[in-house]
Amino acid sequence: MAIEIEAKLKVDSHDAVAAALAALGARHIGRRIETDTFFDDGAIARRDKCLRLRTQTQDGDTRYILAFKGPKAPDMLKKRQEVQLEVHSRDDAVEFLGALGFRPVMVLQKRRSLWQFNRCEVALDEIPILGTYVEIEGPDNDTIIDTQRQLGLGHLSHIPRSYAGLIRAILEAAGDSRTEIFF
């Protein structure tokens, strides 16, 4: 069982973080557009779980990744079970999930610049409505916190909510019923 451990941080800009990553010798993996379609049967989100189909486009190549995430464990960082598998057809995956009773409830696009550093994956994310964030995913809390500190982000608080949850809260507060968020 794979466990996802990550820190999500709100930043004003990616410039200083990207400069720190480059200065520290981090490896830039690339830039991509990720479009996440979230599915629910009325019980998934209520149980603090997530079922997502990601369309990932980078350098002209497109991949489709289906992911299930379990409920968040009580911890200082966001920690939860994660199971992922690559599928070859987005349409077939949507049809399959529909046959199981899951329907799309939100579509969210983001721009992501991905780096490898200190045994962590560091994502510089830009999300419509929300702005700029940094996600640091790694093997354990100590490594993630050390990476956060080395990047000059040690003073920032961790955000436990997902991007979809943050956007949903903003839209609901504004009385906005949109379920598709794109650039």
Structure in words:
- This protein is α+β, with helices and mostly antiparallel strands and 183 residues long.
- The chain has a single domain (3-177), classed as Hypothetical Protein Pfu-838710-001, CATH 2.40.320.10.
- 22% of the residues lie in helices and 45% in strands.
- It is built from 4 helices and 9 strands.
- An 8-stranded antiparallel β-barrel has the order 1-5-4-3-2-6-7-8.
- The longest helix is centred in the last third of the chain and has 11 residues, at 163-173.
- The mean pLDDT is 97.
Quickly describe the structure.
Helices cover about 20% and strands about 45% of the residues. With about 180 residues, the chain is α+β, with helices and mostly antiparallel strands. It has a single domain, classed as Beta Barrel (Hypothetical Protein Pfu-838710-001), CATH 2.40.320.
List keywords for this structure.
alpha+beta; 183 residues; 45% strand; Hypothetical Protein Pfu-838710-001; 8-stranded antiparallel beta barrel
